[in-house]
Specification:
Helix content is about 30%, strand content about 35%. By secondary structure, the protein is of the alpha+beta class. It has one domain. Strands 1, 2, 3, 4, 5, 6, 7, 8, 9, 10, 11 and 12 form a twelve-stranded antiparallel sheet that branches. Strand 9 (about 130-140) and strand 10 (about 145-155) form a beta hairpin. The protein is globular and about 50 Å long.
Length: about 240
């Protein structure tokens, strides 16, 4: 009897994994800012397309004609310059042209807060059609100051997959910011994975607006041209 139940469980698990593989990826709209409840505060809306945590395309609505592309564990800045699409290694672009490179990635992917604990759950919230529970996240920054933010977490597998893509991208992008601790969110990412949850809201600074589970076309993750190698400006100007 026990063996039969175990085999039934394995069959069901394989079926779920096959369904998950067939429906992997999607596209989403998120909004991030200092205070999303304040109409006068600055916020940035971004479109995220992904077919896994390893292939992600992000375009921030900041008036910059370009986007960030993550593939093969590397990040690339794709910019339209004088009508021509050009591809740059993100880390090198960040080192040479920090402002332009930053503008291609959502600000919500970068934080200097280290995980302390996550307590809850609390009340129920429905965001973008997904039902979640409110948890309280405590982090501490490099100056030693603690901060608390509400997180709305859901066990919906579509949101979990989006969160995995965002956290993986944030990990890669953070390596290009020398002033940040690229491991800052690793413990939070581990907590979310262990709980099997994804993010719907972070305080008043991050909100999922929409999530479409249709897998984007593979061409959306292709580089439009080979990455360019930027010259070393320090050597160019004799520094």
């Amino acid at each position: 009897m026990l063996t039969r139940l175990y085999l039934s469980f394995l069959v069901a698990l394989v079926a779920l994994l096959m369904v998950g593989a067939a429906q992997a990826g999607g596209s989403a709209s998120i909004v991030a800012g200092d205070n999303l409840n304040d109409p006068g505060a600055q916020s940035v809306r971004s479109r995220i397309e992904f077919d896994s945590a390893k292939r992600v395309r992000l375009q921030a609505n900041r008036g910059v004609d370009g986007y960030l592309l993550v593939r093969d564990s590397s990040a690339y800045a794709v910019a339209n310059l004088n009508g021509q699409q050009m591809v740059f290694d993100y880390a090198q672009t960040m080192a040479q042209f920090g402002g332009m490179a930053r503008s291609l990635a959502p600000r919500s992917l970068v934080t200097d807060g280290r995980f302390v604990n996550l307590t809850g759950p609390g009340r129920i919230e429905t965001i973008a059609g997904f039902t979640g529970r409110v948890w309280l996240l405590t982090t501490v920054n490099t100056a030693g100051r603690e901060r608390q933010d509400e997180l709305v977490l859901t066990s919906d597998p579509r949101v979990r997959e989006l969160t995995d893509a965002l956290l993986a991208t944030g990990r890669i992008v953070a390596h290009a910011f020398p002033e940040l601790d690229s491991e800052a969110n690793e413990q939070l990412a581990k907590e979310l994975r262990n709980r099997g949850t994804g993010l719907l809201r972070i305080g008043n600074s991050f909100l999922l607006e929409r999530l479409d589970p249709v897998t984007p076309a593979a061409v959306r993750f292709e580089l439009p041209s080979p990455p360019m190698v930027l010259p070393d400006l320090g050597k160019l100007f004799g520094r």
